[in-house]
Design brief:
Layout lengths: L1 H11 L82 E3 L10 E3 L4 H18 L14 E2 L5 H5 L7 H9 L10 H6 L14 H8 L4 H10 L23 E8 L2 E4 L4 E2 L6 H8 L18 H4 L15 E2 L7 H9 L11 H8 L11 H22 L17 H5 L1 E9 L2 E9 L16 E9 L7 H19 L15 E6 L4 E6 L6 H10 L6 H20 L2 E2 L8 E3 L5 E3 L6 E2 L11 E2 L3 E2 L13 E2 L1 H18 L13 H13 L3 H5 L5 H14 L10 H5 L2 H5 L10
Antiparallel strand pairs: 1-2, 2-4, 3-18, 4-5, 5-6, 7-11, 8-9, 9-10, 10-12, 11-12, 13-16, 14-15, 17-19
Helix pairs in contact: 4-15, 12-14, 16-17
The chain binds adenosine-5'-triphosphate.
The site of adenosine-5'-triphosphate (ATP) has 24 residues, from strand 8, strand 10 and strand 12.
Enzyme class: transferase
GO cellular component, one term: cytosol
Pfam families: Pkinase
Amino acid sequence: MSIMMQEEKKRQRPIARRVRSFSESFKCLFKSPHLRSSSPPNVTQLPYRSSSTSPKRSSKPLRRATISARLNPKYSSMQQRTYTLKCHSPDMPHTFKRTESGSSDISNRDRSVSDKEEGIINESRGNRNLESIGLHSTQSSHLRSPSISSNDSLSATTSSSGSQWAMDSLLDDSDNDVIPYRGSEKEKLQSKDWAQYNFIDNPDKEALHRATSYPNPHISRQFHHKGLYIRSSHPDEKSLESLPQLADAAIRCIIEQDGFKVYEDGSHEHNIKLSGLIAKMEKSNFPSTHRQGSLSRPKLGISLSGLFKHHKGECDIENALSLLPTEEKPEAIHEKITGQSSADGNGSSLTQKKEDYLKIVNPDASLGSDELKLINSLSNKIHKSLQNFLQEKNLKPEESISEQAPTFQEKYGHPVGVVGAGAYGEVKLCARSRTDKDSPSFDTYHDKKYIYYAVKEVKPKQDSDLEKFCTKITSEFIIGHSLSHYHKNGKKPAPNILKIFDILEDSSSFIEVMEFCPAGDLYSMLVGKSKSKGGLHPLEADCFMKQLLYGVKFMHNHGIAHCDLKPENILFYPHGLLKICDFGTSSVFQTAWERRVHAQKGIIGSEPYVAPEEFVDGEYYDPRLIDCWSCGVVYITMILGHYLWKIASREKDMSYDEFYKEMKRDSKFKIFEELKHVNSELATNRKIALYRIFQWEPSKRISVDQLLDLPWMRQTICCLIYDSA
Ligand SMILES: Nc1ncnc2c1ncn2[C@@H]1O[C@H](COP(=O)(O)OP(=O)(O)OP(=O)(O)O)[C@@H](O)[C@H]1O
């Protein structure tokens, strides 16, 4: 059957294709400086480098260079729409007329909040958080779905080691009656109970109906005329400043499930558990005489104490130096890239010369001239440092920044804990004291005292291929940085993309500084929910899905496909703001110099989320459509609390095979048919959307753009309002 599928797909895609890696997308960018020619880079005339040279990893996500190919004419050209955030925030203040403690039914929300009250509210909410938050352990990465790439053999990628299916193991361990996969004996017993996962137990059906009917007269009135929310200090929500504040309005809460609340006006509220580390930070009483601009090392207890001792070979974060170039004059940059002085020749202007060798045809692409300069500069420095690391010279990083430049401590503070672990190192939380200069806008999570940053260490291994490692960290940083600092044409960065601030080096590793998301990742959230059976409330999952799709749409509009969308790469703020992270496997399918979208081949991502076309040997596919499939799997995982299948391969997975057969036979899938929602209209619209996503033939699959335009997503009330919504 798979041969038939291959044949069928081959017939549909008669276009000759070629393979191109991320580094190859930018001629000479990743060559050692001495190899770099002085000729102008021309991205369209590159020799292709085989993707098989990508670094191998045993059980961890493998970062993979981008593979692209000639445009397949059936791929539509990208629609360049922009949107800005209008409303809601991670720190959005709400006051609550709470019901008596212990009362399980209805609570009211009073939305009359003045500016003066906002501080008080924030403070009181902080206190409430402190009361309610317990320290939850850091999820170790080995428990998660490892990313895979085309460099792994198919057999290797489809192995299901004990550690690989952590979510299921957790389900098995904690709930004997919850079934990880369809097709097993255990599952047969359970299949009749699928519907229970999303049973909407709401006593006030009429209120629920009113709240979720579309279009909702209440919600439109409040969002657009009265201004539902008061702005907070998160930079993404700046436009909230212009919104009028609400008049007194007591709004009844009609659904409450695990902290998620839906109000009778159709609006909702997420209350995602704050990281235990933040709670500890807030509780600790730090000495007030800590160094200017930095945080005194806190005494946080036994578990974190070892973190502050610097051992030999360990990352010396606080002495790390930024690899980012200081502001250079355009002439100097030009000279660096081209090897020619801008003043030489017949005196033609720099602009003219730039245009000679780089014709920008797609100004919205994330990777353009600025990124090209940055890539050149970074790859030079990383190459040099890597040679030092690998030859164990242990040389101190070159003082590449001016003496006046702030130190790591001044900019990002001190490490206070570990929030996660990646394949090449840990992700740490750094905190520094707030200063007057920081107000009023923040690019990362902050509380009243501190500003927090997530700091990811990336350390080369002894057997690391120098060039591949350089490509990996450069591409991860550049893609993340360009997406999160997309200010070209006066546009705002996307609210759903994690901000990447800086890349630094110390004597043994590279350090990426990111926005910190204090409510952890979706994976941890789902594991928590799984223990108490089932997934998220469908209205909560819908809101997250909408944010996820807008984040992915933003990436696609700027020439990048994520290629590893999974719950581990989706982070949250406590009030439900979603951020997509980890661009290490992202693919550049279109640069600023290209009009065409490049297809790619090979397996990228993490098995349960990988689209079926990726498993077809040698098959080229549109990377945007694999993102769409992954979003669908993420959504179903949010709803069910576990994977739909281990792998979308009929030969390897009974559950997927069953899905395929059911769809062929009945054009229906039992699980999708049985999924419940708060009303039949939403249930039907969602089902239609799911069928459009889960098309194994990519040519029949819906795009992310189209998905956002379906009634399901248009109807979904989201915490954020986008311009194009
Ligand atoms: N900015 C952040 N804020 C909060 N938590 C984070 C942040 N970045 C990462 N984490 C946590 O750390 C975990 C691992 O991070 P990351 O996804 O970057 O590693 P990875 O993908 O396993 O590593 P690699 O990039 O080497 O493949 C995440 O799943 C998340 O729980």
